[in-house]
């Protein structure tokens, strides 16, 4: 797909450490556009059906395989995509590591062919970051005029009818968040300095993400919340689903890092996922033994990093097979965030659960070695 990055020639796909979704999956997006004969909302690159197919994966009538990006309930994706086709904005909510950012990027890539119109929300995010700023040299030389105005990603998305993204909306101070109210309800951005307004053209919409755990940092005002349809992204429903997510993503990441594929890595992935789920849920898989949960969040995203780190160890310092010793250090690092409290939790889990489990002796030894 002819994305702005490819056009500008600044970063090409082969140079970028992490290409944008519209570049990394341009072949899939093109194939979808070719077979997609359903109606497309104005300025959408694909129909809502094709956007959902891009996210969920399928094999097209011409044989092209669309890889699943999001693994989870189909309905969630359908609600998210159809929201974007309305005049309401989309809020993706969930605990850390549930693919909010990932889904937001892929939605923007599929709908608008551009996932880069992004505002990263932090405690320091200012109104200018959401509205517009000024080029001061221009402003001083020629006074306030359109040419001196530096549009924010949101303003650019409004002007071009594209999808804007706001990451971590609830980290933004409440009064700054409220800048979005006019944008979302009136679809316009007043520019009092020029006595003008910038109106959104059809096709514009906005995807925000927010973390469940951050609630209370800055609440979303009820006025703003009413402008959004909220879609909650759940944790993977089963261990099998989580293993599937981790192995798919590790495979993709490994390829982009040129790591050789590890045969039989699945057993180790299953083990990482089991450990994370048991510690997260506070009970063993068989429901028999209660375990304490550590302070950090053991999300799917962390499991993906532990396995990717393990593959790198196996490739560079092992025999290429992913083994217990390659993931043990990563697991310890993910679990023990608070050296005092988490260390106790981990030791207890190690001695009462891991040690007793059939077929886990190699893993027990590897963990003991890195814990010492
Ligand atoms: N259900 C899922 N389907 C596909 N990938 C997933 C799923 N859950 C997690 N992931 C993977 O987890 C990684 C992290 O996801 P992401 O960064 O989007 O999480 P997040 O919800 O934005 O977390 P945070 O709240 O920390 O910002 C991504 O690589 C993503 O592919
Ligand atoms: Mg995120």
TrEMBL record:
Domain ATPase dynein-related AAA, residue spans: 90-228
Pfam families, per database record: AAA_5
Gene3D superfamilies, per database record: P-loop containing nucleotide triphosphate hydrolases
InterPro entries: ATPase_dyneun-rel_AAA (IPR011704), CbbQ/NirQ/NorQ/GpvN (IPR050764), P-loop_NTPase (IPR027417)
MF-aspect GO terms: ATP binding; ATP hydrolysis activity
Endpoints of the signal sequence: none
PANTHER family xref list: MAGNESIUM-CHELATASE SUBUNIT CHLD, MOXR FAMILY PROTEIN
Name of this protein: ATPase
Species assigned in the record: Streptomyces oceani
């Amino acid at each position: 797909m002819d994305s702005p990055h490819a056009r500008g020639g600044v970063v090409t796909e082969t140079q970028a450490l992490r290409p944008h979704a519209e570049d990394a999956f341009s072949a899939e997006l093109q194939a979808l556009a070719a077979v997609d004969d359903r109606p497309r909302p104005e300025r959408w690159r694909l129909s809502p059906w094709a956007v959902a197919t891009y996210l969920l994966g399928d094999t097209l009538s011409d044989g092209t395989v669309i890889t699943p990006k999001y693994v989870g309930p189909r309905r969630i994706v359908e609600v998210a995509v159809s929201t974007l086709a309305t005049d309401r904005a989309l809020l993706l909510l969930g605990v850390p590591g549930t693919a909010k950012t990932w889904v937001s990027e892929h939605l923007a890539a599929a709908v608008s062919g551009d996932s880069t119109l992004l505002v990263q929300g932090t405690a320091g995010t200012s109104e200018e970051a959401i509205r517009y700023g000024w080029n001061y040299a221009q402003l001083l030389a020629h006074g306030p005029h359109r040419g001196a105005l530096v549009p924010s990603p949101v303003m650019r998305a409004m002007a071009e009818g594209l999808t804007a993204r706001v990451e971590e909306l609830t980290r933004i101070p409440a009064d700054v968040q409220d800048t979005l109210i006019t944008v979302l309800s009136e679809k316009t951005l007043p520019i009092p300095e020029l006595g003008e307004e910038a109106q959104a053209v059809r096709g514009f919409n906005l995807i925000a993400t927010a973390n469940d755990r951050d609630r209370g940092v800055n609440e979303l005002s009820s006025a703003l919340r009413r402008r959004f349809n909220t879609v909650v992204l759940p944790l993977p429903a089963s261990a099998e689903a989580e293993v599937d997510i981790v192995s798919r993503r590790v495979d993709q990441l490994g390829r982009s890092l040129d790591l050789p594929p590890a045969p039989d890595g699945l057993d180790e992935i299953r083990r990482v996922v089991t450990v994370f789920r048991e510690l997260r849920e506070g009970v063993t898989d068989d429901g028999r033994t209660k375990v304490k949960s550590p302070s950090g969040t053991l999300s799917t995203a962390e499991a993906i990093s532990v396995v990717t780190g393990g593959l790198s160890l196996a490739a560079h310092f092992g025999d290429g097979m992913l083994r217990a010793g390659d993931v043990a250090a990563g697991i310890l690092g993910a679990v023990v965030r608070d050296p005092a409290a988490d260390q106790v939790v981990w030791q207890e889990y190690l001695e009462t659960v891991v040690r007793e489990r059939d077929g886990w002796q190699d893993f027990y030894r590897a963990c003991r070695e890195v814990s010492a």
